[in-house]
Structures are given as C-alpha cells and as structure tokens.
TrEMBL record:
This is Cytidylate kinase. It comes from the Bacteria. ATP binds at G11, P12, A13, A14, S15, G16, K17, G18, T19. Belongs to the cytidylate kinase family. Type 1 subfamily. Residues 7-202 form the Cytidylate kinase domain. GO terms for molecular function: ATP binding; CMP kinase activity; dCMP kinase activity. One of its GO terms (biological process) is pyrimidine nucleotide metabolic process. SUPFAM superfamilies: P-loop containing nucleoside triphosphate hydrolases. Its EC number is 2.7.4.25. Keywords: ATP-binding, Cytoplasm, Kinase, Nucleotide-binding, Transferase. GO terms for cellular component: cytoplasm. It is found in: Cytoplasm. It comes from Brevundimonas subvibrioides. The gene is cmk. Gene3D superfamilies: P-loop containing nucleotide triphosphate hydrolases.
Length: 218
C-alpha cells in the first residue's frame, strides 16, 4: 500500500513545533493544520459565550459549534489567555471527541499533510510516515514565549511565564484524555540549543529518513 506523506509534530508549548511544522509543510508543499488553534478557539468560544472553562459540557458544546472562521483571528488565538484556555478545555474527553473527526479527516488528504499538536502521533495520525516530538527546557520555552508576547505588547513577567509553562506541561501530560506523550516511534528533537534554521534542518533530515524508510524519497 502506498503511503501519503503525513508528518506528525508533537511537543509542549513554545518548543518550536509550530514553526517547524509550518516550515515542513511549505517545504514539501503539504497542507498544514495547527491543531492547537482548534483548542484555543474552543476555549475562547467558552469565554466569549460567558461560560466557565471548568464546565466540561460548555466546552464540548463550543467544540461542536466551532466554525472555521474562528481560526482566522491570529492575535486572539496566540494570546496567553487563549493558550491557558486551550490547555484547560483540551483535557475534556468530549472536546477531544468533537474535534477528532475534523483532525483525522485533515490527515487523510491524498498527498499527505502536516499536523502539529500534543497527540498527533499517538491518537490523530498513529500511522504517520514521520513523527517528531519537539521539545526544549521549560526555561528556554518560557523565554521564547515571553519575548513573543512582550514584543507585541502583551507585557508579562518572565517568572509568570515560566510558571504558566510548567503548569501547562503538567496539565497536558497528566490529563486522562490523550495526554501529551512522545509516541514510541517518534524521533525526539530537542531545540534548546538550536535557532530556527538549525531546528528546521534537523526536522527535515528526520522526515527524509522516514521517507526513505517507506520508499517515498523523491
């Protein structure tokens, strides 16, 4: 059976996985889905509707009502509040079930696709040709996100950002529904000491090795 080139990129917040995944998609000419935006949109949907992020039923309802145009507000979806909201609603089994078909359908495109998130290689696309688990130390990830938010005017103390990163890591890894774990066959890519060019080159070489393994090399 001929496989399509599906690339699963998982990892914690601010590890560089989103940038790496989007660069891989552009490099291989594949559609790209940042699945974290789905959960961020759900979280913001709960908040904008006056709901409580602690209400699993409200979060599931927001997930089932999610419209594609909710993913177009980049500033809102990449805010610190959206990230915290996403981490909270992503733990609800009903939310994950509501978004599962959408993500899996995206991964089934004939030419392949690139998806990044927390459970792509374990749940969404377990048969992906290439699987990467991108990470970095919490301190480096916190500094990256702190710089990103402060550069656009969302002022936050570094110490608060680090605490937020650690809290989200614990929540994402400890949730009962599709916890963030490295798939057994995923290649670990630690970007702590890498700039984006080095990280992308390392990721591309991982994908090329996977393509060769499955006979998909150009």
């Amino acid at each position: 059976m001929t496989r399509s080139l599906v690339i699963a990129v998982d990892g914690p917040a601010a590890s560089g996985k989103g940038t790496i995944a989007s660069r891989l998609a552009a490099h291989y000419g594949l559609p790209f889905l940042d699945t974290g935006l789905l959960y961020r949109a759900v979280g913001l949907g709960v908040i904008s509707g006056g709901g409580d992020l602690g209400d699993a039923a409200a979060a599931e309802a927001a997930a089932r009502a999610l419209a594609p145009d909710r993913l177009s507000d980049a500033d809102a979806l990449t805010s610190g509040d959206a990230g915290e909201a996403a981490s909270r609603v992503a733990g609800y089994p009903g939310v994950r079930a509501a978004l599962l078909d959408l993500q899996q359908a995206f991964a089934r495109q004939p030419a392949g696709a690139v998806l990044d998130g927390r459970d792509i290689g374990t749940v969404i696309a377990p048969d992906a040709v290439a699987k990467l688990f991108v990470t970095a130390t919490p301190e480096v990830r916190a500094r990256r996100r702190w710089r990103q938010l402060n550069e656009r005017g969302d002022l936050i103390a570094y110490e608060a950002m680090l605490a937020d990163i650690l809290r989200r890591d614990e929540r994402d890894a400890g949730r009962g529904a599709a916890p963030m774990v490295q798939a057994p066959d995923a290649v670990l890519l630690d970007t702590t000491e890498m700039d984006i060019e080095a990280a992308f080159d390392a990721a591309r070489r991982i994908v090329e090795a996977a393509r060769a393994k499955y006979g998909l090399s150009a």
